[in-house]
Amino acid sequence: MKAAVLREAEGVPEYADFAEPEAGEGLQVVELVAAGLHQLVRSRAHGRHYSSEGGYPLVPGVDAVARTADGELIYTGNVAPPYGTMAERMAVAGGFHIELSEGTEDRAAQVAGGMNPGMSSWLPLKARLAEAGELGTVAIVGATGASGLLAVQNARDLGARRVIAIGRNESALDKARGFGAATARLNQDAIRTALGDDVPNLVLDYVWGAPAELMFGLLTRLPTADADTSYVQIGALAGPNAALPAALLRSRRIRISGSGLGSVSMDTIQRTMPEYVTRIAEGHVEVPVETYPLSDVARAWTVSPKDNARIVLTA
Q1: 213 in helix, strand or coil?
Q2: Contact by Cβ (8 Å): 290, 283
Q3: Nearest 5°: phi and psi at 175?
Q4: Quick check: pTM over 0.90?
Q5: What's 102's DSSP letter?
Q6: What is the mean pLDDT of each run of 10 residues along the chain (315 residues)?
Q7: Distance from first CA to last CA of the chain, Å, rounded?
Q8: Per the structure, how many domains does the chain have?
Q9: CB-based contacts of 250: which residues, under 8 Å, 6+ apart?
Q10: Rounded to an integer, what distance in angstroms lies between the CA atom of residue 292 and that of residue 314?
């Protein structure tokens, strides 16, 4: 079969022949419809993600919309290495797939492009909602990226009282305002002004590094020390480390945790996915995409998308 094949860690995938997957016990072979080229896909393929397993050549890809032998359109993933989802065919666990509802076939690219980045916020938002009964004020650090803009929509749709979108890209902040968020540039005075008298009940951090340290300093000085704040680290585009001031931990009720593979159980992830698949497939979530045929994977891998669009490979 044809697939995107990465032959070395620092290379670019090429459209080439790869061995056919086998339908072993508990597996079924499905055909590609669309697969998202997420940041996670790149990081794992290049061996830079904590979940990377190494070994080359390999087929990149973590999830996809695919078609079963019975013609059913499904969202699926968890393909065993060296296989991934960027191939004409893949062997997936028969018990892990989410059927796309009838009439949503034209949203396959949006589902493939939006599930991975959108679930990064959907999971902690749903967890906070289940724990506290309401979201209150949600601050999103790095809200101007594709995942951050999905987080703004998700927080709004799940009933956050206020959403504060924090970032540097002014056009993306305009987009966040269109989704109903208050916005702030990445400095303490601007964030403090956007918060007003509020203290964030939930912070979703997509960048970490120096911006996280800025937020820690701000939280230390905010009033209402009895407010309950959950700070969730999701991405690390600004750096892998951030210094945590002792005064923050002593001065207010705050819990700092992560959201990612390993910090959330696979059972929880799979139980939470169907609702979000449906939301994207039915058009309740705006997911801009740029699509490329699988045969053009080398160009798709290196292109810079416009307006925070998600890159999606199609059959």
Answers
A1: helix
A2: no
A3: -60, -45
A4: yes
A5: T
A6: 95 97 90 96 85 86 95 92 96 84 89 96 96 96 96 98 97 96 96 94 97 96 82 94 95 91 79 94 96 98 92 97
A7: 12
A8: 2
A9: none
A10: 6
- The number of CA neighbours under 13 Å toward the Cβ of 181 is 33
Same domain, 246 and 194: yes
Number of H helices, E strands in the chain: 9, 15
**Separation between Cα atoms, residue 31 and residue 247, nearest integer Å:** 54
> What is the C-alpha separation between 108 and 106, in angstroms, rounded?
6
Which structure tokens are listed for 54? Answer: 């190494």
Residue appearing with tokens 């970032």? 167
Q: What are the distances in angstroms from CA 96 to CA 93, 111, 271? A: 5, 16, 10
The boundaries of the domain holding residue 172 are: 117-258
Same domain for 173 and 199, yes or no, is: yes
How do 182-184 and 289-293 pair as beta strands? unpaired
Spatial contact of 166 and 140, defined as CB atoms under 8 Å apart = yes
Count of C-beta atoms within a 10 Å radius of residue 143: 32
Counted residue by residue, the chain has a size of 315
